[in-house]
Amino acid sequence: MLRPLVLVALLSLPMSAQAEMIEGKVASVADQGRVEITLPAGVSANPDDPVTLLADIPGLGLTAISTLWRVERIEGQRLIAVPEAPPTGTPQPGYVARIDSSVAQAGQAGARGEQSDAAAAQSGAEGMATHMPDIPLRQIDPSPAAENLYLAAQNLMSEGDFAQAAPLLRDAARRYHGHAMTELGALYAFGMGVPQLHEAALAWQELAAKYGEPDAYLRLGLMHLTGQGGATDIPMGREMLHKAAAYGSAQGMYLLALLYEDGTGVPASEHEMVSWLRESADYGYGPAQSVIGQIYLDGDAGVSADRARARDYLTRAAENGQVAAMETLAGLLEASDPAQAQSWRDAAHAAPANHENEALCVRDWECYDAVHPGAPLQPPAQPQAPAAAAIAGPALRTDEVQECDRLAANPFDADRPDPALGVDYAELDATRALAACEAAIARWPDSRRFHANLASVLHKLDRPAEAFDSAMVAAEMGSAQGMAFVATMYKSGVGVQPDPARALYWFERSADAGNVAAMMFAASMTINPDSPQYDPVRAAGFYRAASEAGYADGTANLGVLFNNGQGVRHDPAQAAALLLDALERGSQKAYQELLVDYSGLSPDTRKSVQRLLQTRGLYSGGIDGAFGPATVRALRAVQRE
């Protein structure tokens, strides 16, 4: 019986109280259609639960066998299912198995491996909880619209048409299709049908990981282990592979075995290596089946020789297309069954190259820098010298001011090449700017600011869906302005389905990238007590960031929070200082609070304002909190300074 996959000290996942659909993998097929299915850690089923088996057919995607199977018995993370009738199709190892179950899922999945010390054993999952995102259970059955978009994209990718597939994947991803998110990230990582943008690749994989996509964790692990698009980060790569394995990624388990074999980021351990190889092999991963079969054949890595188990694993590996296993199996069968041995030799000779069976490859075009996890890691590539860059081809980006910048640059966009540039939306000449920005993108497609500018232009021309697409391209390229635009459209529901949570997500990403407008929008969404996103502490943080970025209205709003004691302690003196500072810098919010509707300020804050005015020699009246003519004259003097 397999041990649970989840090491409590490494991973703690929130589980739903009741699961409607469970997804596993067919590990082996026996006579009369009986199948052995492996389940992810912490997931179980009931006897007699119905099971649907699906094949991933190129050009068609996941296609179900019409015959239903039923769970016959359960053995830990394995179950045996039998067909209700003679099957209309022949199942194979690796097929997806979907079990309709009402069994309650465990909140904790048990323990795997060893704790480093007593403190780790006591803290358990709690120790890693701070490192984990709040991951919902993976959506097994996405909406029909999202699934149709995803399947259409898969068909196009199987035909090599990545440029047409990318927008379909993006549309499916917007509909919370986790598979589409991770596939889109892979396209960006390798520049297949989209620009090769490692920031966008990482962002899509991280988002997909939040939806519990095993392939997203696998790809994140590969990216960090190999330094794909950035510096190598072995600890992060190892952590991502543990999460991939916990979600049932057989390739992630295999890569963990390699780490333990070589002691890369973990203590070298033959025991752990063999354990992860078994897990991976029993989940149907061909390379692991081949290696563990050889280990049992040789009696290696602390494992006693077992010819029967070796033959079983090698047969499974050979059936999964592993050439080395075919050749070894032929040698095993030479004496007992020469005809079968020759058959396997012929199969090995005729077998096509299969990059999907290489540890660092997900598909033939998706191989993450051929750096073995156990090999010495190479430093990041040095930038090309100017002469070499010129030989490589024309520049795809420019930092020089272009007509698109003059006509459509946003005043808050930090990417604009000249701080003096900036056109208010109301004054945007969209017709002239459209031609200029489309021409700029055609010549410099990797200059993200042009995509952000084009989004504003298309929105002004009442083409919101196209505006959203252009903004999303800019956002994926790392444009803070593009992120803010995407957030605004999610907030307003123009050009895309309204989604406040997504809006706040993109506003926060934009704010983290330094966009002041996004800071203010994010603050406005989290300061409203009627909003589901209400969080006054976060709002105060956003206003503080805007203030520190030099935005006067951010300073004024932070002053109001100190007056109210909202998200910060009640501090009348601090409130007064911030409001006066903002007023002096031309803040309309401060003008409203101090000179129009000052009754909203507490008496103590108003008294603190008068004291500060008195200190500056602008006010000589009483400190009574009453804003009479003398106080107003002093405030207007501050406004003029």
TrEMBL record:
* Annotated protein name in UniProt: Peptidoglycan-binding protein
> Which positions make up the signal peptide?
1-19
- For whether the record's keyword set contains Zinc, the answer is no
Q: Which Pfam families match?
A: PG_binding_1 (PF01471), Sel1 (PF08238)
Alphabetized, the UniProt keywords read: Signal
Domain Peptidoglycan binding-like: from-to ranges: 605-640
Q: Which organism is it from?
A: Roseovarius ramblicola
